[in-house]
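Feature request disguised as a bug report, sorry. It would help if multi-protein outputs had a clear separator. Right now it looks like this:
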Amino acid sequence: MRSDALTGGGTRMTTTGGGTLTGNSVLTGGTPAPAGGTTNTATGSSVADNRGRAAIFDLDGTLLDSMGVWDQIDAEFLAKRGIAVPDDYMAKVSAMQFRQIAEYTIARFGLDDTPQALVEEWNEMAKRMYAHVVEPKPHAVAYLRELKESGAKLAVATTMLPDLRAPALAHAGMADLFDAVVGVDDAAGRGKEHPDVYLLAADTVGVDPAHCTVFEDLFVGMRSAKRAGMQVWGVHDDSSDHDWGRICALADGVLFDFADAPRSLR
């Protein structure tokens, strides 16, 4: 059902494999300074030239601060059936599609519901939350606008279903910023343990995978994108704390706040 959380505090610091620390972000191997960029007329700051590059973003836990939503949905859903949320439940389902989660949940708790009934119940609960409650993570919208101005192609690669991601993007003020929005439902139903959804996003915006940077909070997604030849930035999320060491070892960089995200894409 997703993976998602609150960002870390503004003063949180991390080092990764001898990388260079900048604010709350860590560059593993470094990110080159923008060369020959333009100037943002609104802020006076330098804007990198990212033409021919693409940035691909996960939604839950990466652009959207949605951990509390799924905690609440899980708690309410299971409480109606007299079940407390197990400590490992969120980690178990984080990379799954909705139907996979439904099948897993039915099997784990011995529920009488059908997978379709569970999916529909979760969807109705989530629609209300995403359309009215979920907010973008700090500085996410400003960062997207800056990348857009720099000439980068922007795409979403998500496990969220269309009837959730559309209202979520609209409420977060991001709907007009993306050149492509794709989900695992568009990628033959293959989850983020496979690179298909990232490759589909790259293909849809017409950028070679070697020139794509993926922003993701889920370790298995980062690993898939990396295997597809893409650069990967790990976005800290409380739900990924159990994988944070592996994320830092794998990613080209990590960040706690989009104010510290790379301005120049590979």
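(second protein starts here, but nothing in the output says so)
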Amino acid sequence: MKFTDIFVRRPVLALVVSTLIFLLGAFAFSKLPIRQYPMLQNSTITIATDYPGASSELMQGFVTQPITQAVSSVEGVDYISSSSVQGKSFVTVRMELNRDPTQALTQVMAKVNQVRYKLPEQAYDPVIELSSGESTAVAYVGFSSEQISIPELTDYLSRVVEPMFSSINGVAKVQVFGGQQLAMRVWLDTDKLAGRNLTASDVADAIRRNNYQAAPGKVEGEFVIANVYVNTDLTNVEEFKDMVIHNDGHNLIRLRDIGTVELGAAATETSGIMNGKKAVFLGLFPTPTGNPLIIVDGIRENLTDIEKNTPTRCKCGAGL
């Protein structure tokens, strides 16, 4: 007797088995993930090195080239790209598909350490970062405001919005594009400095002496222990203006007497534009198993809450 004869003689059993197979297939079909592209593990290792004051040619010859030659011998490298600008060197190592990212990172770190002595003494230690996902962002979300400056908007996005996007399922990291870090800017008047026999180094030393984080410790008694807190840092523009730079025994020379102080951008080399207005963008990079469609759905779910909580008249828009 053949196996199929059982179902021919028992039609009810055949119907039950067919229904069960159909239900299991329908359940399995509902669990199939929907992705834009097949799931592949892409590993990218970025090596960033800072050398303040160095030209792009110097960075290329004495920093970028030695690092590139060292990491080119790492097993499993697909291709290497590099760029050198004033004071900065970037080397990007793209590994082959589905290559173990941890092993690749270990090998790259070992190769970079082998050539560290060849780099200029004034150059900072290379910073090596592993990205085990797509090298490009899944989506970019732009923010603009008519009432607050770009540095203030960047600070708000970094503190509030970026953690919200980081919690979306499948997001590896959130990176700021076109942002400007908030900083206290001091503009010195050279004539006033010369008139008071001061230099820019004197001002820098005074700022370091008057603006630092202190940890004095605690005071212990026979029956009580009290923590000691000292307010040694400056927090607003007026406190910086009132800072004493020099005391000649008769007069106090304050920072407001030799320059101007304002809250602004630490650097203005980068900027972004959205709908003709200055904006800051957040790029969301996926994990190796992150589904771009799920990430985009998570962005849309968060946009409504973000628009309600962002500063007045702050507009946001998503570009995929």
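Even a blank line would do. Unrelated, but nice: The mean pLDDT is 84.
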